[in-house]
Amino acid sequence: MRRYGYPLVFALACALSACASKPADPNAHAYWANPFWQESLLSAVQSMVHQPDGSTPIVGVNGMVRFTVADGIIKDPAIVASTGYADLDKLLLQQVASAKPPKTWGPHAHEPHEFELLLNMLTPFDSFQYNVYRAISNYRLYPRDGIIAGATG
Q: Which of 11, 64, 109, 147 could be 80's S-S partner, Cβ–Cβ 3.0 to 4.6 Å?
């Protein structure tokens, strides 16, 4: 028994750890499960959505849209929750279809996936402000040494 003791204990420990582990989630490394990718998608689509120039701005208009991201483009946008204005719903679908989603990556990069987003129909001025803030935010760079040191401010 002593001769086989350590290898037997090792084999038993490996078997028990294999039994205790849960099966791998096949979607764990999918682009659509990544919160940073989801935020980039929302930002890319929201930056395209705005009320038409020259119209009387309506504050607080939003709508929910369902669409599929496939092959780097947005396909089949559809209204889930209306803005309350038929012309704005039509414009919303056109603007969502023209948005450029972020690049997909990982083992599921070529798989289409469906999304639902609640989007604000910004006034032209609010849209301008949003896009300026987004442009600044995209190019913001934190110094590596400061991040490693845990600096805040």
A: 64
